[in-house]
Amino acid sequence: MSTRMVEVRARVMKQNDLLARGLRERFRQAGTCVVGLVSSPGSGKTAFLEKLLAGLAHDCRVAALVGDLATENDAARLRRSTPNVQQINTGTVCHLDAQMVEKALESWQLDRIDFLFIENVGNLVCPSSYDLGEELRFVLLSATEGEDKPLKYPTIFNSSDVAILTKMDLAEAAEFDLAAARRNIESVRPGMKVFEVSSKTGMGMQAVFDMLHAQLSRSRHSQTAVIG
Amino acid sequence: MHELSIAISMIDQVLEESASRGGLDIEAVHLKLGIFSGVDKEALLFAYGMACEGSPLQGSRLVIESIPLVIYCEACQKERIPPSVYEISCPDCGTPGQKIVSGREIEVAALELA
Q1: Mean pLDDT by 10 residues, chain A (228 residues)
Q2: A23: in domain
Q3: Which among B1, B12, B36 is the nearest to A158, CB-wise?
Q4: Do A129 and B106 touch (CB under 8 A)?
Q5: Closest residue on chain A to B36 (Cα)
Q6: Does A16 fall in a domain?
Q7: Cβ burial, residue A53 (10 Å; 0-12/13-18/19+)
Q8: Cβ contact (<8 Å) for B107 and A188?
Q9: Which structural domain, as residue segments, surrounds residue B56?
């Protein structure tokens, strides 16, 4: 007896991708530039985000969602820069998904936010499969982690738009091979923009602010163009 | 390990497909899994068995077809398979691959009926 097969084409991530598409459209209409942050645990996402929020809050309205398995510690740290911070506790789940983001946004008016940052759970594997509707995804790599991380986790590096090398004030002490790190990033994600920063000293942060401002005006300009 | 979440989403998709066809007696689920999807094949096979328990798919098999990473080489004007997932460039001319054609998919391709 021959096997009976029914052909289907069902994307497993369909539910998440549909929600993410809806979120992306809402962000576009509200004129909110949404940036996702991914990295391994301890590579300085929250410290970097603190600097981002503090630096941008002078002339922009900023907000952040932060994902962790447990605790409100990160949100408490970030609230020193802006009251618009929400912690998403995922329990045992190792990543954020579009539904968690959608739920967290229920109480916020997006058109009153210029920049929304979504800090994912510290993990270089699982978040790569989940689109959160963000406009840009930053992947962070700290000088103390070793320059071959991009080669070990190519999927997340390739799914990101911008690489941020953090803790660069420690690069020399950690014998961080910057040229190799840049080469490895280019190998897994050709053409990727790379920024070198130190959240501690503030080194390199201005270039990130400039890039984000340019991105915001570019996406708002294209929005006007679409409507006009 | 997010493969359990993926397995649960997959089972939901399969049951939806089954319901839309009036309910199928499914013996195996055939999945196309890109090697650049961020999902581990072995972990997914393991999670699938657990996720199926107590569902109409209990006892069914999961058959995974691995899909290679394919890029489009602008220089050769052809689709190419890069040397590895961490050297995303054309194997012939070395041009960096900025456009991924396939390798990220997680897609139920077919249902095998009992």
Answers
A1: 85 94 96 96 95 94 91 87 89 90 94 96 90 97 95 96 98 97 97 97 98 93 57
A2: no
A3: B36
A4: yes
A5: A155
A6: no
A7: buried
A8: no
A9: 3-113
Count how many domains chain A has: 1
pTM: 0.92
The answer to the question of residue A28 being in a domain is no
List of chain A residues whose C-beta atoms are within 8 Å of the C-beta of residue B36: 154-155, 158
The CATH number assigned to the domain holding B66 equals: 3.30.2320.80
What domain count does chain B have? 1
Tell me the residue length of chain B: 114
Question: Looking at the predicted structure, is the pLDDT value of residue B31 above 90?
Answer: yes
Question: Does A18 reside within a domain?
Answer: no
Measured CA angle at A60 (ends A56, A62), to 5 deg: 75
Tokens 């054609």 map to which residue? B101
In single-letter form, the type of residue at position B74 comes to E
Which amino acid type is present at position B60? S
Q: What is the pLDDT of residues B57-75, one digit of tens each?
A: 999 999 999 999 999 999 9
Contact across the interface for A126 and B38, Cβ inside 8 Å = yes
d(CA B28, CA B42): 17
Q: Residue A29: what pLDDT?
A: 94
- Beta strands B100-102 and B70-73: pairing type? antiparallel
Question: What range does the domain containing A70 cover?
Answer: 33-223
Is the ipTM value over 0.90, yes or no?
no
Residue A38 sits in a domain whose CATH number is 3.40.50.300
